[in-house]
Design brief:
The chain has 752 residues and is α/β, with parallel strands linked by helices. The chain contains 26 helices and twelve strands. The chain has three domains: 443 residues, Amino acid/polyamine transporter I, CATH 1.20.1740; 147 residues, Rossmann fold (3-Layer(aba) Sandwich), CATH 3.40.50; 122 residues, Rossmann fold. Strand 5, helix 21 and strand 6 form a beta-alpha-beta unit. Helix 1 packs across helix 6. The radius of gyration is 32 Å and the shape is elongated. It starts with 13 loop residues before the first helix and ends with a helix.
Length: 752
């Protein structure tokens, strides 16, 4: 009988998820942050705090938008880190986000309680309450948190509807405050003087306030959590993220400006300068200033804060429960976290545990420093998400379907990463306890991962797993490493025969690898059923090489062969990768075949691609030359492979305006190679405009042709198809293509 599965329902449209993001951002943080920013960084510092944070948030939002459009599933940064960096990083991303969102929820519950009690006291409606104000705040926090926990349980559509209602309310009130501020400034320009001096404490204090208030810009994270419940997620998720950050930045800057011009110097109880008077109230500075701005200022302020805190509370409960659901879904946490209510289609167990954290902190723990810990963890989280955007685009850009791609990649995620590092460090000036709490929670996470999650986590479709592996001994670890990718018994012997001389010349340790590509419709647990042919190929190669060379073997399974090979070359620090040319390429957009193209473009090592009967003895080898490192490597390979006493012919097809210095190239290349073999080097230059045709015609007279190939360098002369590709298509003789990787490009590839 087929298994009956539960899944999240898709009911949220662009408006719903945009409002969820705004609700997460336009929360209590901005009301508490304005007064503190004025106190710490001055009047201009408060405005710049929100303007610059908005700019940085937009950079990170673009990373989230790109990743969410390609990976539109619940989990957000947890999913991005899983695909970018593997299980360990993804667990820590989810663990930090779960805690940060939950703690933020308790802060918003407290904010609601404080302002609600304050308003009720002004109406004289709290005289009956027999307990202290502290107990009252905790009691109201539990009540309001419980209400929104129930709303989240009712389902995504209910969450979206209630969230949209409250978010529209708070945004409307804040827009009114912002417009009132501009109206007052225009009517009474003297109030602009409240912004002077603009940065009385310098840029250093500005970094402190930016780090402290950055949590007010993390709403696009909750949008990414809605991937499984959003209609047309590849289009709507990126739109909602970018739109929400744009709207919230304008709102914050307007409200900060309105706060500063609300008060006029000389008003009763106001001491000059005005910005210092507002800042002296710290987190209450916003309320004290706005009460002067318009009639019924206190009432309007109370309503705005109530709307803001409840909408943010709603969004944080949603976000925290969805990320813990994703952890349970993948067995990073116990499986019951992923249970979904059949009635409401919501992850009710994850919601229960999230509720416990929110209520526990709201009742028993001081929330100010823990909220600072939430800020620093969100900075850590965004740091990881930006790195994931770079790594995923670099490694898997050809595999994923993007609904949105950021411009000027990778400029914006790199800038965001650098700035987030600085803000995290500077946050210590605001709260040392925040760093302590963050370290403790992360340490607990490491313990949970190493004792539970690491061995139980489900395999992701993007994971690459080792089925069988033979480890290299420590004394052989420092030797030159050649990896030979074998696919079937028919071509394995030809591959290893072709590189036999290379292995001897380099005194190399040889790694035989076979990648088992498991079809998408087949469970990864059944991968072993597809490994028989690969094991046979490895055995054939071992029988040929084992008597002479040190061998290690690996069989891995994956969903994508090229990514599996590239990952293996990085992990094993391979110096040279050898592959066979594909039998056929059915997709016109690929030069040599999809898997080979991706390996040539992205492998962090030298690559040799063998086409035809390259294992036969070669007494005369043609080496087409274009200059550069690929040509030098091709010349070196040819010298190693040619028979003793044979001839290597560097060959160049010269155009009418060609200025290539063949003699100079050979002199520098041979000096670098170090010729210690009885080989004749006889260069040859031919005239012609069709380089590929010239090579194919000349190659018929040789035993072997060795030529360089790379994604952006080589024989191309303003044509869309590169010369090596044309030679591969037209040649009837054996050809070896080589790609050299060194310097900065190699370092970047190894890191990413």
């Amino acid at each position: 009988m087929a298994e009956i599965k539960s899944e999240l329902s898709r009911e949220l449209n662009l408006f719903h998820i945009t409002m969820m993001g705004l609700g997460m951002m336009i929360g209590a943080g901005v009301f508490l942050g304005i007064g503190n920013s004025i106190y710490i960084a001055g009047p201009g510092g408060a405005i710049l705090t929100f303007a610059l944070n908005g700019l940085i948030a937009m950079m990170t939002a673009m990373s989230y938008a790109e990743l969410s459009s390609a990976i539109p599933h619940a989990g957000g940064a947890y999913n991005f880190a899983r695909i970018g960096f593997g299980k360990g990083a993804s667990f820590m991303a989810g663990w930090m986000e779960w805690f940060a969102s939950s703690v933020a929820g308790s802060v918003y519950a407290h904010t609601f309680s404080i302002y609600t009690m304050r308003y009720l006291e002004t109406l004289g409606l709290m005289s009956w309450f027999p307990y202290s104000e502290e107990i009252g705040v905790k009691l109201f926090s539990v009540i309001i948190a419980g209400l929104f926990i129930y709303i989240n349980y009712r389902g995504a559509q209910e969450t979206g509807k209630f969230g949209a209602f409250f978010t529209m309310g708070q945004t409307t009130f804040l827009v009114i405050i912002g417009l009132a501020g501009f109206y007052v400034a225009i009517k009474d320009p003297a109030r602009i003087q409240n912004l002077r001096p603009f940065l009385p404490y310098g840029w250093r204090n500005l970094l402190i306030t930016m780090g402290f208030t950055y949590v007010a810009f993390e709403g696009f994270e909750v949008i990414s959590q809605a991937g499984d419940e959003t209609i047309n997620p590849r289009k709507n998720l990126p739109k909602a993220m970018i739109l929400s950050v744009f709207v919230v930045t304008l709102t914050y800057v307007s409200v900060a400006f309105a706060t500063l011009v609300s008060v006029k110097e000389g008003m009763p109880g106001v001491e000059a300068p005005v910005w210092k008077w507002i800042g002296s109230f710290r987190e209450k500075g916003f309320g004290e200033a706005v009460s002067f701005l318009m009639p019924f200022g206190n009432v309007l302020l109370t309503i705005a804060v109530i709307f803001a805190s409840t909408s943010a509370l709603n969004a944080t409960i949603y976000s925290a429960s969805r990320v813990s659901y994703a952890l349970g879904r993948d067995n990073m946490l116990p499986g019951f976290f992923s249970r979904i209510s059949r009635k409401t289609k919501t992850p009710y167990v994850a919601l229960i545990f999230t509720s416990f954290i929110i209520l526990f902190i709201a009742v028993l723990l001081p929330t100010i420093h823990v909220a600072s810990s939430a800020s620093i963890m969100f900075l850590f989280l965004f740091f990881l998400a930006n790195l994931s955007a770079i790594r995923v685009r670099w490694r898997m850009g050809d595999e994923l379907i993007y609904g949105y791609k950021m411009p000027l990649f990778p400029l914006f995620p790199i800038m965001a990463v650098l700035i987030q590092i600085v803000l995290s460090v500077w946050l210590v000036h605001m709260s040392v306890i925040a760093w302590i709490v963050a370290v403790v929670w992360i340490s607990i996470g490491f313990t949970v991962y190493n004792t539970f999650s690491r061995t139980r986590a489900k395999l992701s479709p993007h994971d690459i797993q080792i089925l069988e592996e033979e480890k290299v001994s420590p004394e052989e670890d420092e030797r030159y490493r050649i990896m030979v990718a074998v696919s079937n018994p028919e071509n394995s012997i030809r591959l290893v025969r072709s590189v036999y001389k290379l292995c001897g010349a380099k005194e190399a340790n040889i790694e035989l690898i076979h990648m088992v590509e498991v079809p998408d419709q087949v469970p990864l647990s059944d991968a072993h059923l597809y490994m028989l042919k690969g094991k046979e190929a490895i055995v054939e190669a071992m029988l040929y090489l084992a008597p002479t060379f040190s061998l290690t073997t690996t069989v891995r399974y994956c969903r994508n062969v090229s990514r599996g090979i590239i990952t293996a070359t990085r992990e094993k620090k391979v110096d040279l990768l050898v592959m066979g040319f594909p039998q056929k390429s059915t997709m016109a957009e690929f030069r040599f075949g999809k898997n080979v193209d991706q390996v040539i473009d992205k492998a962090p090592c030298h690559v040799i691609l063998l086409k035809g009967e390259t294992d036969k003895r070669a007494k005369k080898i043609l080496v087409p030359i274009s200059g550069g490192p690929n040509s030098t490597l091709a010349l070196e390979v040819a010298i190693i492979l040619v028979e003793d006493g044979g001839t290597v012919v560097p060959f160049y097809v010269a155009g009418v305006k060609s200025t290539f210095d063949m003699a100079g190239f050979l002199r520098s290349s041979l000096e670098k190679i170090g010729l210690n073999k009885n080989v004749d080097i006889e260069s040859k230059i031919a005239l012609g405009d069709d380089v590929a045709e010239g090579i194919c015609r000349e190659g018929l007279s040789y035993d072997l042709v060795v030529m360089g190939v790379s994604p952006g360098i080589g024989f191309t002369r303003g044509k869309s198809i590169k010369v090596p590709e044309l030679v591969a298509r037209r040649s009837t003789f054996p050809v070896i293509f080589v790609k050299e990787t060194s310097g900065v490009r190699s370092l970047v590839r190894k890191v990413l």
